[in-house]
Predict the structure of Dihydroxy-acid dehydratase.
Amino acid sequence: MSKKRKLRSTDWFNDPSQPDQTAIYIERYLNYGLTREELQSGKPIIGIAQTGSDLAPCNRHHMELAQRVRDGIRAAGGVPFEFPVHAIHEMGKRPTAALDRNLAYLGLVEILYGYPLDGVVLTTGCDKTTPATIMAAATVDIPAIVLSGGPMLNGWDVEKRVGSGSIIWSSREQYARGDIDYEGFMDNVTASAPSPGHCNTMGTALTMNSLAEGLGMSLPGCAAIPAPYKERAQIAYYTGLRIVDMVWEDLKPSDVMTREAFLNAIRLCSAIGGSTNAPPHLQAIANRVGVEISIEDWQEYGEEIPLLVNCQPAGEYLGEDFYRAGGVPSVMGELLRAGLVAGDCRTVNGKTIGENYGEQVSRNEKVIRPFAQPMMENAGFAVMRGNLFDSAIMKKSVIGEDFRKHYLSDPEHPNVLRGRAIVFDGPEDYHHRIDDPSLDVDERCVLIIRNCGPLGYPGSAEVVNMRPPDYLIKRGINCLPCIGDGRQSGTSASPSILNASPEAAAGGGLALLQTNDPVEIDLNNNRVNVLLEDAELERRRAELQQPPLVNQTPWQEIYRKTVTQLQDGGDMAMDEEHLRLVERHGTP
Ligand code: FES
Ligand code: MG
């Protein structure tokens, strides 16, 4: 490849026509021992966008992996510059980490745009770190490669696998039944986190890293290598090597992330049983790269894809097993042979999807099924519509027997559920009232949670997967249909209807709902409706009093002024479209 291309960084570091500017730019980088030779002899300057820190434990081992990235960059003739990305930790950030995705995105855009970087390694892992960093690389469109951090090792309870997040939901049921006490609950949950790494279930982290690989943004096989494995540090080195050549080739995010690549990622998401957080994240990335995708594409291209990966929460195994069975390469191999993904998309290693994955097969068919023997057919997200929202999604791969057992309507129409709405105004209200006997929740109820979308919460809370009251769990009813304008954890096996857009706080139909209203969920036609006359809904809208939106920080205020609905990615809109939304539904 040609190493003659003029690099972006020379505008800062070596412009003889502006000696004073160049001197100012360069002098301070020498103060810790870099030399002029390194910065002025045309070596690519490579950023390492560091998402790990003590506050971001899922990505913390990137602080060590970065050394291997540096080694690779140096060996290929580049100069590494490591810098911090705004910390995002899914479990630790209040009110919700989703609020911070766009903030981390903005911060990284400023760094990539404003500093002398020719290319960047994106260290990813915990849920929002992956979309935030890819969005930024897409906006600036300089050569960029994803280095996933990898899942934690399998968690174990003697011989039983204990998966991140998923264990919380099942242990909470045991706790409600009195099978375990507080100490037992803590022991169960902490057993799921045995090593460095991100969540070991097929939650949002493993999903988004798998989709980053499926998009072509990481080296093949990168997504699922467990964090502590030697192969993780080795791929950190290869990633560092590769980004330098990507700079010389000028291989940019816009060359890799085409519409076909996004459709590949949507199909991959169904096949792995991926998180319901993937649609807004993928949408936001596509928006940044200028590719048109929409929630319709999930229905059209994703819903009919079979589930091939047997990982929690849809299945049994965890990230370590997924890696050992072949990871993303094996799944892509299966989808390629079935003609379901486009093989000619370019990837960051310079080869196509077909070249990278065409020969890959499962190494353990209990964990990654061959295409002909899937875990389940039609495993993608259904896009639901009706008079409560324009769109919401439902993960069909987790609809289990438990759920079907408690059908709420007549046996003649087993896919049409009718129930009595129990409405909560956000997670605090839910936690406060769910076990109150006067609510009178039974197996004919649908739990509704609102005011937890991007505007309402703000950021959109992962709360739609609500457990039934303890008194129902004691009777063996572990699951009720849930509907909400928030999200749910990717680690949850709840078949909720979530990401409802527009959310209640933006004037969506959920705002009009009252407890005891009759709600119908039609799984055949993907419809959700409250069974009330339009006139009644209009009457309620005229009298609607929305709860006030209180901003606790300056960013919350800016976020609320700019955020779009989840079906549009929870992205930033600073154009007329957002103003129209405000006009229609009132200033938040
Ligand atoms: Fe960070 Fe799950 S909490 S990956
Ligand atoms: Mg999450």
